[in-house]
Design brief:
The structure is a homohexamer of 289-residue chains. With 289 residues, chain A is α+β, with helices and mostly antiparallel strands. The first copy, chain A, is built from 11 helices and 8 strands. Chain A starts with a strand and ends with a helix. The interface between A and F is large, with 42 and 41 residues.
């Protein structure tokens, strides 16, 4: 049994299953739980004493959907001000229009970054985008050949299609019909192309570069990009996206693993993960705390 | 040495190489050739007696680019009249607008279907599209569950992006920059979406189905489709496209193979292909004649 | 819980599990069920009120094995008369002998086409073969280079080995020992070769072509064909087989999906499938109705 | 330039190419060569002083096709007497009939085991079969659960289809048309099945086991076996076949590599291979001497 | 429900589950069982009448961990005396030091060869190593080019890293932290390198060959070897290891399959396995008896 | 013809090949060349007028091996001072000992990072390591959960095994025998383990983490790592290594591509790469200039 709320998920066991639950549940349900948490084989586990399935009108959905613990307003501000540092007039205006599109921007700040792989929480897309932005800023300094403006635009908006690929208002994260028929790569390319098309004098070549970056950010055809990255900026956006995604998979999987322990094997990285015991106050510094 | 003109290609050998060619050519060149054709190990081969490299002003490019042997006007008329049989008003109008877009339609009737895999000839895209149309008509009758209008639209226009992915005016077939940065799948989806967007009252759901069909026609992610086919019509367009492509690969590879002979191994199907000897006048009925 | 009878299968739920079933069943069982059908997340589901496990002597097996809804006699007649149209005397005689082999022909008209992928029902092999025949007839007209006789023979009999690979008399579909040790590709090739061997003067080359077509119809080595298709007819039989198999997978998977809904992800195509809402009376025209 | 004769092949270089050869050869030719052998980067190389292309009537084909250095009569005798040790009456008779089939047995003792991977020499099939027999005898002793008779039959005859898959009389090794359309796995299974069919009272189950062993000896579907090995003996025949094939690839590739040297990368094992320097008289004991 | 003790494992069913077990067990537990064994679909099954979960102090761990049925002392003696036959002084001393390292040798004679694939039992590593030794001795005779000393050393010690990769004292087989962070390939190479380093005058080249053999024994990179085998002995050790591993997978999977029956599909070979009915007293000779 | 010197490589053509070169060269040679450079299809090309093959004593090898254009002393100093910032006493000492090992450190500052993929130049390993260090410093700031000391150690020394895997003194880059038999992953792990072993009191757990990071830095088994990364720092070292390797592949491939042009297809990224035309003085800012 896995318990989920907006702060994350945890394994749970219950020894005296009430008669009404003997035959299992018909799917995920909202429940109220009492019990004790303890460590079991290096992972946190809850021993449930009382469990009660809630009716729809007893539930405040916002309490249950997992949500980022970061300050969303601060992250959004960081992204907005990064856009203002772009030196290319066309890209700076494109960035500004994306942020000024209220419906889009609100969705961008609320959407999860995925249904389950990483950053699967309200605000997850914003969190992922802001972290990619930070890595991109560092990378642009280390590789002077990079077009910093394009890299930053791509680091921030490569996943913007997730705002329409996923839905998150109905008490869970789900794929939408456009999400399944077109996918976030194409949807994102279309969102950006629509804003590009509205900017007078946006150079055709630059529009093509931006589109290429949006389309190729998955890196390989088998991950859903119709083309592999063929410009330096497209290549780096894919690598930065991948770096943050995998770091997040590690940190989210090992959240409840205590120092010196191993995670389950079933996680997006498909291997058991290790959280070493650190010298001098390991507990405080362990990943996930 | 391979000789190519607009009727196809053939292996060639030359025993007395003129001094000026002793060090090879810098790439494909236009040449004037005299010699004799003969059969060698079951394939046609030309023994070249005289070979002369031509200067740019001696060349009529149209004489050299391979071109379909089919009647392009008749094929175009067949496609156009198929469009008029669609029963869904929106799709019939979309089809009509594609045909009425002069620049697009002219390119559609001239473009090759590929740079080298199959139908790599002027008019090849039209030929491929018309053959897919014929198969699609038959399939729609055999499977009554199919939406015939969508299937026919997809069979005809799934590869429309090739008109911008490839160039064919400069004496050879080459990828364009948009062709390499976006690819024909995305370019084609955008072409159709632009025409859809210009039709008042085109249903959103239908637009999504059409877009899905354009995006998924490669069948698998590793072939460049960002989504696998998830509707019956998208699935069938991919299967029909694949059937005609592979039949063409076979027929084009075995064009010069005589009855009872085997092709080279180097062809798009990556296997040596067999042309059986047929009873009663095999020669006349052999594939490729 | 999944309920299966000869008309298909359906998901089911039961809230008051009788004491005797509390610990689950030891495998599939024949049951008598009462309850109500309703739609749940776009798929039909049965809410079971009463469920009773039947004893062996209470069961009429024919009522439970899924069976084609098509008219088997009409399909068989269609196949038989197609054989009479073959122009090559040897192939026409071969076709006739296959049909005249009573044990074989009866099995051919009863066997399922697979244990679970597609056409997994009594009469499924006949249904699949007859549909492939129809597609082959159309294809032979569209590609004049094709040897129509060979294509039709292959379209009808490529899967004849299924008659011995599978068993369907013991209340379920199962692999036989020859089916597991040799597989339907080899068994089918042997069945045809035995009939070929009994025809005086059957040309050796033609026998080889027929055998190649039987052996290569899976298309790729990893699907169980010891050789890839290397003749035009073998290539097309594989493509036609594949087209009907995938169309059937789609239609069978979406049978209970209502218009505008999505199927489960677990099906032979390994992706969730979409049944669009059609304009003007969608419900009646939805696939599977 | 590679020189091949019946003792093997060797790299060669020629500095003063005669005028007539300046434009290359049209394919492999018979030549008479004079020159000096020397070691170059740890591999034997011939520096050619004089080279003359021979006419067809100057050639004794037997002098040029590579041929095993082993005593073919002794190997054949070893195989024949192994057959006489079988305890199962049916298998002993089957073995005897295979050996007594003169045309088959003569081909078996002359055929190469492959066109190029390993044992690509006259007598190579016999050599490979005899070595597999020796390994099989040892394995049958180590694993008492094994049916020794079946294992020995399979070790000797798993590749018997090569006698018809390949031709070796026309001055080179080539695939035959049945070899390409059916492949040695199927051809071999048919050869054995024909002999099984001629033995009165041969048990059906045993015939199925023998057939399974023939069909599955490539081990995996992608290597051309329509089924994976599913009996202990079929599994072991595949493993023994693989062991001898890979040992032969190593020994044949490193034949001309001196102690302490590395082979080229282009060989059937697709990696550069090492011949260590051995203590105490390495040169004499190096593999290939 | 699967029952395991030191003689192996068996499927079991229990119809009257005691109330305390109604909700399942929290993992594997020690139990005391009464019931009847019978055959079900060709496999042995136990019908449990009484089942009692034991407390920790009621358990003698040695009674439950599966353990080899072979005589471990005899196997160990066979390995030790094989080491004494090595002719190369350095390798003979290395072998002797491995055996004389008490902690290592004791672990080597007790460790399982794997957590679950094959030889997953106390003494399994010794059993696997001794069988590989026997095959290696035969192979060294059949291929005179082989360095027998190296082959025998590798056949015996290629898996020595398992002694530290796995733990087997805590009532089950589990991966250790070094086992997960380094793996048995590296751990084994380090164990051998440490002993090599302690032998004065051990030739550097020979040390490299031994290390290569340890590192490459998995055969392919994707199985955890950082290099493919590039010497004859490394190649053969991999092939011999593979042969014994697969034979063991077959024999362990079919242990309870009766003659003429098929195993489950879920086993390390990922296919259903067949145990043929043998003529004349099949039952006694069936694999696994 | 490709010309290489220590500043890089360039395509070249020669129209009047001297008689002595008519038959090609026996391998790479040192040459003296006169001619003119020009742009051909967007890439720099040299038209050679005079070409002279040099004798061994005319050659100064240092003039020909490609060498980094960066300041090696500055890079080395940057790495050394990064080591002094480590806070963990054990890792800081380990880092210091690596730098103080004169033979190792000199090799580290001279070695190429690869034979051909990226950074294949004298000083290339240092350049790659220093760039990874810079990325690692940024990443450690962005992800506070990371153990900065381990990450920096790994970013700098993950490829230290290249110092023994490759040789670069004999006029070219080549694999050594240990490089081929063990590979740089294992050699690097052993180098670090030897230094760890010499530090009194180095914690066993930390040694295991360092070893895991060295062993897993290739990321996947098929790239030569015997284990996948299972700690956060090992995961990030792999991702940082990959980011710099791919960026270098891009920059090195497009070095001679002019703005708006495309690279050849044959490069380590196996796709044609694009160098966009930039607004406002593109030529000066193009990658690679």
């Amino acid at each position: 049994m896995t318990l989920v709320d907006k702060t994350g998920s945890v394994d749970a066991r219950m020894w005296k299953l009430p008669q009404s639950l003997r035959d299992g549940l018909d799917g995920p349900e909202y429940v109220r739980v009492e019990g004790n948490a303890h460590e079991y084989r290096g992972m946190l586990q809850v021993k449930v004493e009382r469990l009660e399935v809630l009716k729809a009108d007893e539930v405040e959905e916002g309490d249950y959907l997992p949500e980022t613990e970061k300050d969303r307003q601060a992250l959004a501000a960081e992204v907005v001000s990064a856009g203002q540092t772009l030196q290319n007039d066309h890209l700076r205006e494109l960035f500004a229009r994306m942020v000024a599109d209220e419906e889009l921007w609100e969705a961008f700040c609320s959407a999860p970054a995925a249904k389950g792989m990483h950053h699967a929480r309200i605000g997850g897309l914003l969190e992922h985008s802001a972290t990619c932005l930070r890595v991109a800023r560092a990378v642009a300094e280390i590789y002077p050949e990079v077009d910093r403006d394009l890299l930053i635009f791509g680091a921030v908006f490569h996943d913007v299609g997730k705002t329409q690929e996923l839905s998150w208002s109905s008490g869970g994260f789900a794929y939408t019909t456009p999400g399944r028929l077109q996918g976030h790569v194409i949807v994102g390319d279309r969102i950006v192309a629509a804003h590009v098309g509205a900017i007078p004098g946006f150079p055709e070549d630059l529009a093509l570069e931006v589109s290429h970056l949006m389309l190729s950010h998955q890196g390989e055809l088998e991950y859903g990009s119709p083309e592999q990255p063929k410009t330096l900026e497209a290549l780096l956006v894919n690598l930065i996206d991948n770096l943050d995604a995998r770091a997040a998979m590690f940190l989210e999987t090992t959240r409840n693993v205590s120092a010196g322990g191993w995670s389950h094997h079933e996680n997006p990285l498909k291997r058991t993960l290790y959280v070493p015991e650190r010298e001098g106050g390991a507990a405080q510094d362990a990943p996930g705390n």
